[in-house]
Amino acid sequence: MKIELINVSIHKAISSNIKRRPKSTNYPSLGLIIIAGLTPANDDVSIINDDSQEINYNSGADLVGLSFLTPAAYRAYEIADKFRRNNVSVVMGGVHVSALPDEAGEHADAVVVGEAEGIWPGLLEDFKNGKLKKIYKLNHYAELSKVPYARRDLLNKKDYITTNVIQTSRGCPFDCEFCSVGDLFGRKTRFRPVKDVIGEIKTFDKQIILFTDDNLAINKSYTKELFEALIPLKRDWVGEASWTIKNDPELLDLAEKSGCRGLLIGFESIHPQDHVRKVSKHQDMKQAYRETVQKLHDHGIAIVGAFVFGFDNDDETVFNETLKFVRDVDIEIVEFNTIIPFPGTPLYSRLRREDRIFENDWRKYTYYPPGLCFYLKHMPVEELKNNIGRIYREFYSLKLIILRMISVWRRFRSIKMVVLLFLISFGYRKRIRHGF
User: Fold this and answer.
1) What's the pLDDT score for residue 18?
2) 190-191 and 135-137 strand pairing
3) Domain 2-137 sits in which CATH superfamily?
4) Which helix (H) or strand (E) holds 345?
5) CB burial of residue 173 (10 Å; 0-12, 13-18, 19+)
6) What pLDDT does residue 238 have?
7) Kind plus residue range of the DSSP H or E element containing 252
8) Which residues of the chain have pLDDT under 70?
9) HSE (side-chain half, CA atoms, 13 Å) at 100
10) For position 187, what pLDDT does the model report?
11) What is residue 70's predicted lDDT score, i.e. its pLDDT?
12) Using CA atoms, how far apart are residues 184 and 100, in angstroms rounded to an integer?
């Protein structure tokens, strides 16, 4: 049986004039390559990156699987409809499908709600036997000890900064209002056995490793075991963690020894926010973040700082204040994002109840260009869009990029770090200039 798995492009979805995402800021999602790993060896499976490849609707595929995020939903539906008109069966999955299975089901022969492990092999058997169901959903969460090695060999390495993506955990105990991770993967964090993670990493090429966990340091005992197991491999890696990692000196020491070269930190806002984790309204967020940045830098770890704008207590002063802060503490890479009420999140439900969502076109639910989806409390939505664009352009101006690279060299004394961060910075600069 011939199976084609398609990762639907957000950039083609929102504009036909937008070029594909720069390689230096692009890495593959794990979903489809894990599904490919779950596919029986006697089936012919391929992966199509819609960002860089043309889709052949007459390829002779028996079954097509589509995975996509909310902004790419309409493009996914168009792709599915074209295949189905050619009598090719279509299966859909992903975060958007899990949130709105009925909507997606109008364009698919079957939809997968939630995690695919435990579903995909049975779905393929049903398809082969002519008994495909409309909706597939497990009544329990996947066992990560049964996750197969992902099929990175099916990816075009030229499209990505690295194909060495791997995940060690799923689920999140936090209840950030704008996030669907807890509802989708559970409030209890599950972990993949460290020996399985290390075994898969040993199959990687020499590119840098990217851990895609939402918070790699969510469980200190597990994380310390993982970092200790990484040390003998002598591999460079990057990942994502909470800013509270600063509170554990032993964990920071192990991160440095294990090869950590960068962490994405979801700072979210320089002010305490309702509905964002468990922080005190009286906590000095700037001071806490400043300590995080300093401690990570002291351990040779660069930072991608992610900030979100559009909270209910944000006003026009938050943009310059945030820009000043990230420059003062010398964060290497920054993402300035709009808060987006994605379907399936508590934020989406609350704003619907408050009748504040005015945009139902999923193509507008993007981080950049800034999505304008709902009415803000203290500023016009156009002011949000204009200010995010302004501070993005300033942060990634040629002058500031060069000044930061000088700081990177002085801080880390590593040509490899300077080159990597320079390429990533220029990738963001290119995306900003082209509006994506």
Assistant:
1) 56
2) unpaired
3) Cobalamin-binding domain (3.40.50.280)
4) none
5) middle
6) 97
7) helix 249-258
8) 16-20, 275, 277-282, 435-436
9) 17
10) 80
11) 96
12) 12
d(CA 145, CA 204): 19
pLDDT value of residue 390: 95
- Where do the domains of the chain lie? 2-137, 164-434
> β-strands 169-170, 110-113: how paired?
unpaired
Residue 377: closest CA among 321, 313, 318, 322: 313
pTM: 0.93
CA distance 73 to 332: 33
pLDDT of residue 228: 98
- Residue 16 to residue 230: CA distance in whole angstroms: 43
Bridge partners, residue 135, by sequence:
111
Q: What is the DSSP letter of 39?
A: S
Report how far residue 1's alpha carbon sits from residue 130's, in angstroms, rounded to the nearest whole number.
13
Please check whether residue 2 is in contact with residue 121, taking contact to mean a CB–CB distance below 8 angstroms: no
pLDDT at 404: 97
Topology of the domain comprising 164-434: pyruvate-formate lyase- activating enzyme (3.80.30)
Terminal C-alpha separation, the chain: 37
| Structure token digits, residue 340 | 């987006």
**pLDDT for position 16:** 57
Residue that is written with structure tokens 């709009």 in the block:
338
Say if residues 71 and 12 touch (Cβ distance below 8 Å).
no
pLDDT tens figures, 53-98:
999 999 999 999 999 999 999 999 999 999 999 999 999 999 999 9
Q: Helix, strand, or coil here: 417?
A: helix
Q: Which two tokens stand for residue 205?
A: 């090429």
Name residue 359's amino acid. Answer: E
Of 168, 237, 232, the closest CA to residue 209 belongs to: 237
Q: What single-letter amino acid sits at 99?
A: A
Q: Are 409 and 418 in contact (CB under 8 A)?
A: yes
pLDDT of residue 225: 98
Domains 2-137 and 164-434 share a fold: no
